[in-house]
Amino acid sequence: xxxxxxxxxxxxGTIGRRVVQQLSPSDARILPASRSGSIRHDWNExxxxxxxxxxxxxxxFVMAPDGVGIDPRxxxxxxQSGVTxxxxxxxxxxxxxxxxxxxxxxxxIKASGAEWTIVRPDWFNQNFSEGFLREAVAAGEVTIPLGExxxxxxxxxxxxxxxxxxxxxxxxHGQTYELSGPDAITFGEAAGMVSKAVGxxxxxxxxxxxxxxxxxxxxxxxxxxxxxxxAFEALQARGDSVPNDTVKRITGxxxxxxxxxxxxxxxxGVWSES
Length: 274
Ligand SMILES: NC(=O)c1ccc[n+]([C@@H]2O[C@H](COP(=O)([O-])OP(=O)(O)OC[C@H]3O[C@@H](n4cnc5c(N)ncnc54)[C@H](OP(=O)(O)O)[C@@H]3O)[C@@H](O)[C@H]2O)c1
Hints:
Mean pLDDT: 96
CATH architecture of the largest domain: Alpha-Beta Complex
Helix content: 25-40%
Strand content: 15-25%
Strand order of the largest sheet: 3-2-1-4-5-6-9
Number of domains: 2
Bound molecules: NADP nicotinamide-adenine-dinucleotide phosphate
CATH superfamily of the largest domain: UDP-galactose 4-epimerase, domain 1
Shape: globular
Number of helices: 11
CATH topology of the largest domain: UDP-galactose 4-epimerase, domain 1
Structural class: alpha/beta
């Protein structure tokens, strides 16, 4: 739809930035929004939920940063202002991990009255290069209480490609897409590949004890950390992630491997100071 207008929330973030890159300006007018973006949006400031975001917008990529919820009033206002399609960034395994924040976000999108698509990715590859594991790579120790469980890491570029398809094509309404990368590997194997690229040891400790020690050492509240550990135990009880063909089915292209990601990130020099 050449005259379509698409608003991208979290447009400076890991996924939002790549959604903007994937959308073609010749097919749609793209509005990147965030607190620091050219169009201002703040989940904590309802005064920013106004015509600058909603005026003329047909479709919207909806994401909430870690720890922030989706306010259903935002979706209602957007839909009443003419937004007819929402694509939500959610996460895999939120049911078993009892992630109330994202479960509520999914409910809100479904109840919005607009067309909706939910995208549930596995762990992002880019956690190691720009996300919450960036500092762990620099420190040479990754601690996630998942032992030797295999995770089907997703590349942010593939997630964004699925989001872009759901925003611009018909046929995705009412779908919840569970995404995966092509392989399921352990955090230890992933850390090993990054270690080779960085050229220094990066140890992985998958025990709950190490995680509790590390997180409380960063000053996190012990009760919150113990709740996280419980959620990780529930994820472990579910078993290894099983790769699926959803990325290929939606985008026509096979998902990128973790090794592809490491090579691209190293070439870009993202770990050059690690
Ligand atoms: N990491 C994973 O492996 C993983 C896996 C599955 C799902 N997820 C989910 O993915 C989401 C995180 O996505 P991401 O990694 O792309 O995010 P991110 O890189 O942390 O970026 C957050 C984005 O939100 C914006 N932002 C921050 N605070 C805001 C606020 N109060 N109001 C409006 N915008 C705000 C930021 O820009 P400004 O600073 O300019 O506002 C930025 O554009 C979370 O919901 C997480 O649960 C993560």
